[in-house]
Amino acid sequence: LVFTRLEAPGWSSPRGAMVKAYLRYEQARAFGVIASPEACPVYADEKGKLVVTAALERLAVWDVRRGVEHQSLIPPARESGLVPAVTKIARAPGSSLVAAGAADGSIRLWNLEDGTSDVLLKGHKSEVTALRFNASGSLLVSGGKDTNVVVWDVVAEMGLCRLRGHKDQVTDAVFVEAAPNTSISTTKTSASNGARLVTCGKDAAVRVWDLDTQHCAQTLAHFGAECWSLDVDPRNARLVVGTADERLHVFSVAGRGGDFGGDGDFNDDDAADGETNDETAVGKRRPGSEDETKARRERDAVSIAEASALLTPMGFVRRADRSRVSTVRFDEKGTFLGVQTVGRAVEVYRCRDAREMSKRLKRRAKRRREKRKADKKAEHSDESEEEEGANVLDASDVVDLAAVVRTKSKTRGFAFAPRSRLKKRPGVKVVMAVLTDANAVEEWEIAGAGDGDGDDDGGSKELAEPTRARALEAAGHRADVRAAALSPNDATLVTCSHKGVKVWDPLSGSCARTIEGGYGLCVVFAPGGRHVVVGTKGGALELFDVDAGAFLSGGVPDAHEGAVWGMALLPDGSGFVTASADKTVKFFEWTLAEVEEDGDETNETTKGATFTRRELGVSHVKTLQMAEDVLSVSVTPDGKLLSVSLLDNTLKVFFADSLKFFLSLYGHRLPALCHDVSSDSRLLASGGADKNIRVWGLDFGDCHKSLFAHDDSVTCLKFVPKTHYLFSCGKDASVKYWDADKFEPLLTLNGHHAAAWCVAMSARGDFLVTGGHDRAIRVWERTDEPFFVDEEKERRLESLLEEGDGGDDDDDDRVAAAARVSDADDDADDDDNRR
Q1: What is the pLDDT of residue 599?
Q2: pTM of the prediction?
Q3: For residue 633, what are the β-bridge partners?
Q4: Which long-range contacts (CB under 8 A, 24 or more apart) does 8-12 make?
């Protein structure tokens, strides 16, 4: 019989007596990410009140006016725990259906009305880089880094065809609807309904696909630069392609690009008659006969021939910004064209209407006639050719630069707001949501410059300077989350980034307040949980009142001459210790500083008076000079020992009261970036840039075990209170759960999509908070579900076999074998050192 027991924290069973069971930690919530830079935002409704953004693996629906998250669409968890990040978003026109393409090549369809997802489409082997619905929302096209283009039937929830032809990543795709006067005779069961598909890629080519025959009918490869985005106007008359150079290419679609009105010149009766006659002719033929096969081949030939002449170049216009294009989109009416670059600009072009283009052609013809009269040698010139050239539209006649939206951070995408947003804003011509690289979405408005028509040749005079109306930026940091700390009662979470701190509610994930400050690298709560001290990259110690959201003057601006890498509270609550790159370890104590304030000028009783109040401050007590940069510091819970990790790959242990040297812990091949001490002051765990975690005994300084922990540097580790369990995180984006007594990895918590920088443990150990380079703050809670180490290993291997290919599994086996060899070598080295 095998007996199991759910063990209390710190309890260890004799080897071989029982199988030890642990309680599982799972991700409870994630917050801090407003919008990932990979996917452009889209408006969720026709009213333009909601915006959908990609927040790493989930979709976030934001209320733009209120600046709060309206809905969070979280995909179901996978066996491996890691859910791929969303790379592309597309919304079906006039519908609540949203498609989200992921980094693993899958596409998930979401219903925004009830927040459900029942459809998962898998057709790519790598990241989805292009996603677009057709006008009716019945078809979806996707392109990926695997150079494939897949057309999906949304209604039938299946793939229609796979189109191969691009030699590099597919960057964008768009459907071109069939013209009313087309001669294509498609059957009633054709899902494409005579539509064409236009795609572009990094192979500097634009391809036109005939969906009925699934052939590439036209290839344009004259651009000379990578093609990054394209779009067609709502009339399906003109198509615009943005490339890596400064040119914006304009094409006429099926000869309609030069039309001055409507949808082109055609005869509805003729089109109807042609369709009727063809159907009648087909109906007279017997099914499966040679006549029917011949007719189908003729229809296919006509369809390919028409698709091969779909795009006609109209020239190009030079953009104001010379950086490469990232996104090109028309607005809902086709009046404006937005061009977003990889820089800090979104160019807005005005599409001229028929009256303006007609005036330009007349002026051009008039200038040519005047020039011909002035030039005596032009008497023998061919006037018919000149008149014909004067009546041809080029790209500069169609679009003209009207305004440029410039943001403080680099732009990563944009979306035009629906036209209904403009009805309540008289004078406003354009409203757009701009995604920036700083984890923010800004909404910009562009108003008309005046009531007059302005100069037809200078369309830029018709729009005023763009203004930023509102922004979604309070619910996340602009850069990495470098440090995190929980209050003593676990009710408040404070995180640090490059421009101050944010205060969160860890239960709901809402941001309570933002306090401006320096680049914080470490943070600790003062006794009482009302104030925090932040160590900055510039060497300052900043003091904040969390409840009031105020910056206090009691900090020390010049506490260190280098970056403050670590801080540790003293167990008696009298102060804290700091570790810095200036090779010093400094002790500080809490003080009460007197601050003078002037009375309220609006109040007659306090006007001109001066008041004195006390606020928390810190003062320097003593300094411990070291020979190398100090990377982290810790004080044992019993207050007897002080430990520091140095740049020379060693850890030093001192007596806390006299600062006399006690132990030197040597074994890391690269500097130990972090370390922590267990609650009983018996074990010290250190994680280094050599990817290893070493467990040390503080009685004699012996290394109990060296563990190959992460695939990259270990950035932070924390012991679970009153246990010998610990959590570690690293630059490999993983968070791992360890048993420091049995030296076994218990769990791997996959959730971060970039380097994980910090770990904050709750006082009872029932949850932890992690933050990283992906700007996400993730809360992991302890559940009541027990697990066994052997079963967890088997489950992890099964998930790798199911979700990965053979090459990935071989890589995992090689890493595991290397880890075993490394552990064996380290154990041998430790034995030699002890001898």
Answers
A1: 62
A2: 0.85
A3: 644
A4: 9/720, 9/721, 9/722, 9/723, 9/725, 9/765, 10/680, 10/722, 10/723, 10/724, 12/724, 12/741, 12/742
